[in-house]
Every structure is written in C-alpha cells, then in structure tokens.
Amino acid sequence: QGLKRLAKESGASMFMVVHAAVATLLHRMGAGTDIPLGSPIAGRADEALDDLVGFFVNTLVLRTDLSGDPSFTELLARVRDTDLAAFSHADVPFESVVEKLNPTRSLARNPLFQVMVGYHNRTEGELDLAGLDVEYVPFRISSAKFDLVFSFTEQTSADRDSGSLVCRLEFATELFDQETAERLGERLQLLVAAVAAAPEQPVSAAGVLARDEHHLVLEGFNATAREVEEASLPALFGRLVAGQPDAIAVVERSTEVSYAQLDARSNRIARLLAARGVGAESVVGVAVPRSVDMIATVLAALKLGAAFLPLDLAHPADRLGYMIEDSRAALVVGTEPVAGKIPDVAGVPLVLLDAPGTVTELAGLSDLAPAGLPVGLDQAAYVIYTSGSTGRPKGVVLPHEGISSLVATAVDRMGLEHDSRVLQFASIGFDVFVFELSMALCHGGRLVLISDEARVAGPALTDFLAEHGISHMILPPSLVSALPSGCELPEGSTILVGTETVPPDLFERFGATANLICAYGLTEATVNSTLWHSRPSGQAATRPGGRVPIGIPDPNTLCYVLDDRLAPVPPGVVGELYVSGRGLARGYLGRSGLTSERFVADPYGPPGSRMYRTGDRARWRRDGNLDFLGRVDNQVKIRGFRIELGEIEAALAGHPAVSQTAVVPDRDGDIVRLVAYVVPEQSSLVPEHRTVDPQEIRAHLSGLLPEYMVPALVVPLDGPLPLTPNGKLDHKALPAPDWSGMTGDARPATETQARLAELFGEILKLEDVGIHDNFFALGGHSMASMRLLGRIRSEFGVELSIRDVFDALTVAGIAAKLDGASAARPPLRPVGHTEGLPLPVAPVQRWQWSSYRRHSGFDHALVLRSPGGLDADALSAALGDVVARHEPLRTVFTERDGAVHQQAAEPPALEREHCADLDARLAELAAQAPDLIQEPPLRARLLTGADGTQAVLLTMHYLAVDEWSVVPLFRDLTTAYEARTHGREPAWEPLPVTYADYTHWAHEVLGDLTDPDSLGGRQLAYWQQTLKDLPRELALPMDRPRPAAPGLPRHSGDHVGFVLDEQLHADVDKLARATGTSMFMVLHSALSALLTAHGAGTDLPIGTMVAGRTDDQLADLVGCFFNTVVLRTDTAEDPTFAELLTRVRETTLSALDRQDVPFDDVVRATGLPPAGPQVMVIHHEQAQLAELEGGVGSLDVVPTGSAKAELTLSFYEPRGDGPVHCALIYATELLGRAKAEQLADELQMLLRNAAADSEQPLSELFTVTSMRSDDV
Fold first, then answer.
1. CA angle 191, 194, 199 (to 5 degrees)
2. Which of 427, 719, 1020, 1054 gets the highest tally of CB atoms within 10 A of its CB?
3. Reading across the β-sheet that carries 839-840, which strands appear in turn?
4. What average pLDDT values come out for the chain (1272 residues) when binned by 10 residues?
5. Chain centroid, CA 1069 distance in Å
6. CB contact set of 892 (below 8 Å; sequence gap of 6+)
7. 552-553 and 530-533: which strand pairing?
8. Does domain 1-208 have CATH number 3.30.559.30?
9. What is the number of alpha carbons within 13 Å of residue 673 lying toward its C-beta?
10. pLDDT score for 774
C-alpha cells in the first residue's frame, strides 16, 4: 500500500517504483550511480494484436541516474522521465540498438545491461476457467539469461482495494550462491519498506542491512578484545632484562649481545643523550647504521620518554634535512662512517657514537637506568615520516599504547614464542622495524640483524635465514616472489608478507613448507591492523582463489567498512576502510588540519574514541576476512572508466612468459595512459619465454580485459622490479615510458622550426614533435591553438591568426607563415597603476556589467568538500593570500558619468556557519545575488554540516572570475592552504602582470572603435557587416511558449548530461581531421543541423565564449578576460554535413580572428538582443581535478539555478582518447527535461550518422521523425 501511494503521489506507475527500487538497491550494493537495467516491453502497440498468440516482446535499456544522492521521490521523478522516453522509442529492436552502439563484447556478460527488471499485473479473477481452480505455479529454471532478474508480480483484488507485490529473483549460479541471492532479496525488502515510509530521505539513508548483519559487521567481525600488559616498550623490555638477563637479545653477524648487555649499552647512551637535553617528548634522530648500537640508541631514546625519529640514510639529504627540521629534533645520533650523509640542520647537534670524545664519555657513564618518571602509554614512542600528497613527507606521531597489542598479534596470530628468532630486515625508516623490534625484545626472543649482502632476493638471503635458524620474518611480497628457483624459505618458519599487493602464486610456491601470512598495516595505526593465514588453525596451506584477502582485525583493533555517510555496508559491498581501537597515532606532527581530516570521531565506539580514515577501499567477506581493493583517492580513471591496477596485474601474471609485473598510470596533465612493466620468466622449464614480446602481452590482455584496461605500452625489464629500501615498488626507478611512437621522425631543419616544434611539444605535452605532425592529430584543439598563437606572439614578435593554424597545421607549415606575418600587437607589460584609484573596466567587462545590471545573480559556484574537516584559520589566511595576489577578487564597481570603473575594496573574508542540511544550504547560497557596488564579486564560506562534514563554497561573478580563472584560483587557494597549515606563507612566483596592466593593455590594443583603422574599428566593421539582418528570434523546439515579456535577462536553468563514447569521439576526430576542422566545429555543425531539422530556420546565430587570454602572461591570472562572439551559421539549401562543416569552419575562423572587440560594442553596433544569444556552444578543456583539489577535498559544481541562454551545448574535450562529457543546458520555463533529453539523444544520433557518412544532405542525415514519430 505504501508503494502504491508513493506511485500515485509521484504520477508514476508501479513498474517505475520497482525500477527505482532495484536501481537503488544495486547502487547501495556498490554498483555505482549510472545503472543500466534491462526491461521487457509487451510490444503490442496496436490493439489489433491483443488477441494474437505470438512473440512480440522487445527489450529496453533503462539508464538510471543516481548521482547526487537524490531522495527516492526525486529518483522516482528521474525514472519516470527515463521510462516514458524509453517507451516512446520502444519500436527499434534491442539487437539493432546493440548493433548500432557496438559496445565491447564479452561472452561473460550480456551487452548494455546485466540486470533485468520485469513487472506483471494480475487481477483476481482475470484468468477464470469454468469449473476449474487456476493458479500460477512457480517453475525452476536451469539456465540464467542475465546475471540477475528481478521479476515483480503485483496481485490485486477485483475491487483494486487490496493486493500484494511479489518478487521472484533469478540469479546466475556462476556469480551468486543461494545465500547471497537470498540476502539480496532481504535487502530489497528492507529498502522498499524504508523508502515507502520515508520517500523524501536520500537513498543513501535507506537501510539495507539486516539487524543481524549490522551487529555482525560492527561487533561480530570485531570481537578482538584481548588483555595485554599495560606497559610501554622500554618497560616491556625491562621486565625481560630482569627475568632473563643472559638470554641473547641481538645478533649482529658473529656477535651476540645478551639482554643485560643491551640494557647496559642503552642506559649509557640514554645518559649521554640526557646530558644533552633529551627528555620526555623530545625527538631524537637515529641515523646509526644497522647494528647493535642502532637498537641500543632506539631503546635509549625511549627510556628517556623521548620519541625516536628513524633516518634512513638511503633517502636524499634534502628529505632527511626536512624531517629533522620539521620534527624539531633535539639532536641526531649517528656514526663517523655515515656522518657525511647526515645533513647539517641549524640548531640540531650531531652526536657520533664512535667519535673518540663520545667513546670516552660513554665509557665513563653508569650502565644503570637513568632516573626519571615511568614512560606513559600516551607518550610518543616514535615519529615516522610517510609520503605526503603535497610532495613533502608528513610526520606521524605514534604512542606506546599500541605496542603490547602489536606483540599480542605476533603471539596469537603468528605463533611467536619466547625463544623465537626474529629477522630484522626492514630499514629503520619503515615502521615494520618497530614490529620486528617489538616481536623480539618485548617477548624474550632474539633479534637477528640481516647483513647488507644478504638483503637481496637470492641464495644469500635464504642461506642467511637457514644459518641463523630464523623462525619469524616480515618480507615484502615482491622480494619473496623474486626469489629464484632453488631458493627455499626455512621449513616451519612464519613469514608475514604485506605492504603491497600479494600475488596468489606465492602461497602455491612456498605455502607447503612455510607459514605465509598476508598482512595489512598502517603507519597511523602502529604498523599492523589485519592478518590472513594461509594455514588457519594449523590446517594445510590454503591457496587463495584469486585475490588474496588481508584477513581479520588484529587483537584490540577494530575495522569498519563504511559508505560516504559513515554507515556500515553489508558483506560483499565495497566501502572505505576505517581502523579504530588501541594503537592509533596521535596524528600528524604540526598538521592539525590534516589530523582532523584523517582521524575522525568513531560513531560506533565509546565516547571520545577515534577512527582513522585509511583512504583504502575494502569489503567484508562472509567469513569475516577483508579484501583490499585499492585506494579511494587514487583509483585510475581511463577514458571515463574507473579501474583497479591490481586486476590488470593479475591478468598479466597469468601469462607464462611473465614472472613479475607492475602496472602504473603515466599522467601528463589531463592525459592518462597505462604502462605495464614486466619481468620475463627465467624458469628453465620454459626457456622460450626468456624474452617478452610486448605485442603478444597486449594481445593476451585483450582477450581477458576490456579494451580501456589494456596498457598502452608494455615495457620489458632486464632484471627484477626495483624496490625501495622499505621493500615496496620503487616507481622512480622504473624506466620512463617512450611515447615517441606517437610522433613522426622528420627533424627541424631551421632554428625557427626547432623553436616551433618545442612550442608544439610544450602545449601538447609531448617530448618530441616532427615538423610534419598535425597539431590537431596530436591532441590539439581550438583552445590549444589560441595558446599556441600567444606563445608565437611572445617568441617571434609576429601576429598570426587562428586561420593560419588551421590552414598550416604543422611546424613546417606555420614556419612558412611566419615569413609574411605582420608585426605583433603592443607588448603586455607592467604599467604601475596606483592601487586604490578608480580605473575604467577592461573592455570585455562592460558586457558582464550590463549582464549584471539585468540580473544580479552569481555566474558560477564551486564547492570543495572535505569530509574530515579543514583548518579554518589556515583556510582564512589562504583566502587572504589569494585575494591579495589577484586584485579582481578585492574590487567593486561604480558607474560615473556613463562609464563603469573598478576600484579596490575591502577584501572578502571567509564566512563560517553551521547548517543542518549542507546540500540545501549550498544550493541556497549559490542562488544568492551579490551587490557588486558594495562587495567584491567573490564570496567564500566555510560550511559545517550536522555530521561534521565541511565544505568551502566559492560563489563568483564573471566580472572577477571567468570560466578560465577557476584553474589558477583553486590551484593558488589549495597551495596557500597547504603552506598555511605548516605555519608559512605560500612561496609562489610573482605574477608577471596584474589585471590593471591587462586593462591598460586591452584598451591600447583595441584602440578607438570610431577609428576605422584601429584594430577595434576594423573588427567592429566586420561584425556590422556579418550580422546585418540577423534573425531577432529563433523558433527553438519548446514545450511551452516563450513569455510575453521579451528579452528575459536570465532563465531558470537545468541540464541533461550525456557522453560521447570513445568510439564516437574517435569518429568525430577523424571527421575533423579529414575536413580541416575541430571537434568544436563538428559539434557546432551538428547542433545547427539539429535545430534546422526542428524548424529553427537556416540562418542561425549561435554564440560561443572565447578565453581572451591572447598573451601567455595572462595564463595564471584570475579575472575577466573572456568574450562572447556570435557565429552566424548558414544551413540553407540542404548542404551535406561536409559542406556545412566547410561553412562553419570559415565562419568560426573569421570570428576568432575578430574576437577582440567587446561583445557589448557588437550588441550596440548591430542591434543584437541585449539579453545575448539564444543558443550557445561552449568548449571546455578537461581540467585536472587533482591539481585543483590539492589533496584538500573533492571539487564539485553547485548549480546557480539559472541559464544565460535558452539552450546551451557545453562539452569538455579530453586531450587524447576517451569519452567526451557533454551537457545540454536549457531554460526550464521553455523546455521540459524529457524534451531536453530527446534533443541530447538526437544530437548523438546525428553525430553518429554524420561521422559515418558526412556526404549525406542534412535532410537525409537526420529528421525529427527518425527519433520521435509520435511528435509529428
């Protein structure tokens, strides 16, 4: 009844309700936000078919959009629009859809969708056979057509007052077992009950966890409580010294040191350090090479209540110096042989243990423990530095509290005994060193220091292990897998492998003789958090089927797998892993903002407890083990698809010629390509595979993976994968990929060609460019060509036009154009304007001011979300830095004597507020209007939601921040924020010019518009001629009539997103290259053809934006530089699409060569409507979000709820291959969403047809009836 009521109130059918429910369920189970579902449709479109027996059914694909966490009511509205549009296009057979779209095929799955939703309505008494009782009987199926089929049957009484809804779930047994399918059905029941009760809640709030599951994932899997000794590391060591003083503690080559001897040595060193001011909470740098003295120095620092700072001398001196300075180390301890590697840091003394003076001093010191208070569990034990997203390492401060639980992990899970022999393999700079030290010296075993010559993947290592009888060791899996045949691990030994993905074949190779344990650990949680045994409870070794799990939580450790709302997800569903319990770090040294972001309140623990947000993706298995599935923030996105590199590596490892492999993303700006590094198999059993054929490897992967997951380049390596001192893959040591195959080999013959080739390479981000390589074929586009012109102007002092680039295309062609080029416009240079004095606005600002006077709303709004919180003071200071750097952000506007002036004003300050509903408040603020006479065109707010989530909202007007200013604005803001969180000012380079300099220069370049010989006068004359007798109003396809009041300044707006897939992108590029055009011109032509087909006429004024940054010195400025131009598009006489492209090319190039004259002046001179173009096409370059977000949070657009034009096609062109993300923005008072979606669908169909045959006339290429015969 609740679902029926919901359907009635929403104007939807029951099918639409169950469609939305299944899509929500799949979304909540981790299937993403773009859910394609199949659905059968009866196909009896004519009532004459009602009484026929036969097969009429067709299949529709219903694409469901769950982005933005909608309420179920909102989702139902989306589903209603989608389903109605699909039903209106139900005649084309599903097989034809598949044939036309031609998706990547696989025998393992159905094309386009893998889940079907069916619906039947049965009324009591509808099937009545005289004298017989009739009922529907469920039948068992033996094969599955799809992965899942949700078949709903609504049974209603004859009076329609009562009834029930039944769901039959069919599943493929290769993918799901009976229990999983039953759980899925239970979750569906829970979900529909939740949405029926509260349809206005976000779909993320609808519960899908059964009560027993909720208890299981939060408590059952986390039943890890264990009593441990409540003592610090030196106290645990001290008890062993007292209990077994003569037992061997440390072995260094042939030297054995007892617990008493090690204690005495550490006591002397502790007294030495105390005499130099070391005490509780001091930081002591330890740069002693692997030796007994290294262990003694660590113990000495801990006995004083200080924290030791491990300094791995294999790291660069600059990094070590930064760590010493950043940690405020009291001193550094080293030895004479390595003293030259220890950087000299002002104010930090260096103590060399083997220096003659120090040796004498140590000999005179007592070997009794120094006096002092006991070391508390909450005191810092060590500070260890890990890589930071900013390029500088960050220090993690770990207390003693987790040490006893770490030892308990080794005892309970690794079989550690009091006489175990533990290998000390890790470098001191790796936190595994702490695990090794604690395992041995806090439980009574001996710590065996590995020699440098044995620290390799070979016989030297395995011989060392055997000679010393090592029982427990922690080794990188890449090192173990690199052991050559014949090298065996000690029988009965326990080897913990972790820190990186563990290949399954390790267990097959070594699991029979050794006890292999897979580990997952975090520096921020005292080294280790989970373990997985290949031999559970003493059983025979288990070879993991596929992915190796990371195991169950350690003693006193809690693991949560949570969704974006910090709610637990069911077993089998991917979420983000959080770690809680004993042993969490205090936080990041000196980085309170980062600490509050990563260490958050534990909503499931006792009051005051914290949990660490790992940033790793994980899922529970039903047996309580965890799977590690890569990084949340470092998934690789290739051509719009998010992928896990481990899946590709696993496929590579299955090739018989490959022994080791690593797949890494090669990023250059917005270009991301995959590179596979492979080590050939050297087994004597397969000598033919001693070398690797990259093409054969790629062909092997092509048979296993989707095309977008096949690496673009396979690089064979001569030796094993390079490892860091910590045993992880050393990315920096991998050879750089050689992409030269993309470009030609014709070399520059002149100095001019050489410099132009360099400019091509800089702009297109290629190392080398041949002189006959096509600029656009290498990834160039209209905006890139504008940047090229700016660089040519700066380098050669001449003026070329955009037409020159499109005509010449190559280095050789453009070099020839330079000979006859005119002298460049006046140079842009600083002019020394006195800040505070009024200054006329820049020419392009006049139109924006006119637009503002008609409608005072903000033009765009962006939000930077940070779930873990931000340092408000640092953010406020960073905002001040950015506003001081960019004067338009602290400018107001005044009108005086008919002219508009810009004047310095009070800079905007960061506003802070708390709100109950963060998203609602963001939308409300984005829709506000500024008073630009009283305040600058930028508002910045730090909002804190009810759950503590924070977001920085910037609302901006084009007068100060145009579309192209977003990149420098956010890049500078996140850079400044990072600096301020470290207590320093941002160290950026000064800007070459200011906006005031640009304003003076723009007026100078333009000249007097009344002078026919000035640049502005010549361009204005062109526009007066070109736009003469232009149609005042286009008859656009509308749902509703245009309001009687003409010239609305701005419309209420919404948008429909769609994607040109990779194949269509490639086809569009191919067409553009063949016709000497660009993607912009192809899409502009397609939109023009579509509008003509809809009756808009054949004389189409279509507006576009140009960046206006015609000098490369303007690239990093924030301000208003962009201009609007009108492209008068002629579709008369039914041209072919190729002919239309020729016309559009001419129109576009002519317009771009006259882009300097402000649109405001063009409007006045030509009588264009003052509200601006009805139709716009806007071209964006795909931004590199990571650069803008700066590791602070995630950047999103907040709609302002308005549209400047009635219809706008906006698209983001990627550099290189990949999908093209588009949006059709429309005025909601004129167009409904269904009509906008229809136009988007039609535009894509038209593009496909044009790309397939551009010689067709427009009338044959596309007609409205080809998509919607019911509209005629």
1. 115
2. 1020
3. 839-840, 899-904, 891-896
4. 91 95 94 91 84 91 92 95 92 86 64 92 78 81 87 83 88 89 94 94 90 92 96 97 97 96 98 96 97 98 97 86 95 96 95 96 95 93 77 86 97 96 94 96 97 89 96 89 86 85 78 90 94 71 69 97 91 93 94 90 94 92 90 55 68 85 73 81 51 81 67 86 75 77 63 87 81 73 73 81 78 82 78 74 91 87 84 93 95 88 92 92 92 94 88 94 91 91 90 93 90 88 91 89 59 88 88 87 95 93 91 90 94 92 91 90 90 91 67 81 90 81 91 92 93 89 54 32
5. 26
6. 902, 903, 905, 932, 933, 934, 935, 936
7. antiparallel
8. yes
9. 15
10. 74
Structure tokens at 378: 């909450």
Strands (E) located in 534-657: 552-553, 557-562, 575-581, 587-588, 599-601, 610-620, 626-631, 636-638, 641-643
CA dihedral of 227, 230, 234, 235, whole degrees rounded to 10: -110
- Are the C-beta atoms of residues 721 and 678 closer than 8 Å to each other? no
Tell me what pLDDT residue 302 has: 98
* The token pair that represents 1086 in the structure block: 């397609």
User: What is the pLDDT at residue 153?
Assistant: 92
Fold for 839-1001, please state it.
Answer: Chloramphenicol Acetyltransferase (3.30.559)
Q: Tokens standing for 1156?
A: 């300097």
Convert 981-1021 into a string of H (helix), E (strand) and C (coil): HCCCCCCCCCCCCCHHHHHHHHHHHHCCCCCCCCHHHHHHH
DSSP string, 645-700: HHHHHHHHHTSTTEEEEEEEEEEETTEEEEEEEEEE---TT-GGGSS--HHHHHHH
| CA 698 – CA 707 distance, rounded (Å) | 10
pLDDT of residue 684: 41
User: What is the CB-side half-sphere exposure of residue 310 using CA atoms within 13 A?
Assistant: 27
Measured distance CA(1147)–CA(1155) in Å, rounded: 12
Q: Which residue has the tokens 């089929």?
A: 149
Report phi then psi at 952, rounded to 5.
-100, 120
DSSP label at residue 540 = -
In angstroms, the CA 992 to CA 244 distance is: 71
How is residue 907 written in tokens? 């800079």
- Give, for 149, the enclosing helix (H) or strand (E): strand 148-156
**Domain 1011-1037+1050-1181+1199-1262 grouped into CATH 3.40.50.2000:** no
Supply the DSSP symbol for 1163.
H
Q: Is-contact 164 151, C-beta < 8 A?
A: no
**For residues 261 and 406, is the Cβ–Cβ distance under 8 A?**
no
Whole-number Å distance between alpha carbons of 952 and 970: 11
Rounded CA-CA distance 319/311 in Å is 10
> 912 forms bridges with which residues in the sheet?
942
Position 577: which residue type?
Answer: L
Tokens of 793: 């102007």
Evaluate whether 1-208 and 1011-1037+1050-1181+1199-1262 have a shared fold. yes
Strand partners, 424: 449
Note the CATH number of domain 209-229+383-631. 3.40.50.12780
CA torsion sign for 224, 230, 235, 241 is: negative
For residue 69, give the nearest of 605, 637, 781, 564 by alpha carbon. Answer: 564
- Residue 645: closest CA among 669, 624, 672, 620: 672
pLDDT of residue 336: 95
What class, spelled out in words, does domain 751-823 have in CATH? mainly alpha
Instruction: Determine the Cα angle at 761 with ends 758 and 767, to 5°.
Output: 100
- What is the CATH number that goes with domain 636-683+690-714? 3.30.300.30
Confirm if 1192 and 870 have CB atoms less than 8 A apart.
yes
For the chain, which residues make up each domain, given as ranges? 1-208, 209-229+383-631, 231-376, 636-683+690-714, 751-823, 839-1001, 1011-1037+1050-1181+1199-1262
